[in-house]
Amino acid sequence: MPTTSNKKWNEIREILHKLKDDTLREIHKTVKSGAETSTIGEPSGDIYDQASSERDRELGLLLGDREREKLHSIDEALLRIDEGEYGICEECEEEIPLGRLKAMPFARHCVKCKSDLEKLQAQTRRFEEERAYREIPLGGEEEEA
Ligand SMILES: [Zn+2]
């Protein structure tokens, strides 16, 4: 089943799987320390070895947003590898350099587009801040026509 273009991402896959393991291990720790205070007599086996999607969902409730987002990004990246969409900039559809992907396996944009996007985001944020500032009521002293 694996095609040659898929094979290309074996290294990235490994990185992603390792990241996922690390994240799950972190979660496992959190869940375990939480479980100690509860009376549920769950065996302390490797819960993630037998993790079903049901289990994932349960775990999801216990996770912080950051971990959840990370797991989500990992799964998404793996999915994109499977679908042959991985490593292509979503903006300009250029291939993202492997070096960048190794450093940032979730990257969805090439360096150029990413920095463009960041500039845009910074601008938008500034704009929103300014607008929020301006929307602060100044005591209703507006002139009436
Ligand atoms: Zn791009």
Write the layout of secondary structure elements.
Elements: H1 4-7, H2 10-37, H3 53-62, H4 65-82, H5 98-103, H6 111-134
Helix pairs in contact: 2-4
The structure holds zinc ion (ZN).
Describe the structure.
- The protein is mainly alpha-helical.
- It has one domain (4-40, 48-134): DksA, coiled-coil domain (Four Helix Bundle (Hemerythrin (Met), subunit A)), CATH 1.20.120.910.
- It is 62% helix and 0% strand.
- Helix 2 runs antiparallel to helix 4.
- The structure holds zinc ion.
Shape: flat
- Give unreliable regions as ranges: 38-42
How many strand segments?
Answer: 0
Ends apart, CA distance between termini: 73 Å
Structure class: mainly alpha
Number of helices: 6
Supply Rg: 22 Å
What is the chain-wise order of helices and strands?
HHHHHH
Mean pLDDT comes to 79
CATH architecture: Up-down Bundle
The CATH top-level class label? Mainly Alpha
Helix content, binned percent:
55-70%
Q: What is the CATH T-level topology?
A: Four Helix Bundle (Hemerythrin (Met), subunit A)
Give the tally of structural domains: 1
CATH superfamily: DksA, coiled-coil domain
Percentage of residues in DSSP E strands: under 5%
Largest sheet: none
Bound molecules: zinc ion
In short:
With 145 residues, this protein is mainly alpha-helical.
Salient structural properties:
145 residues, mainly alpha, Four Helix Bundle (Hemerythrin (Met), subunit A), 6 helices, binds zinc ion
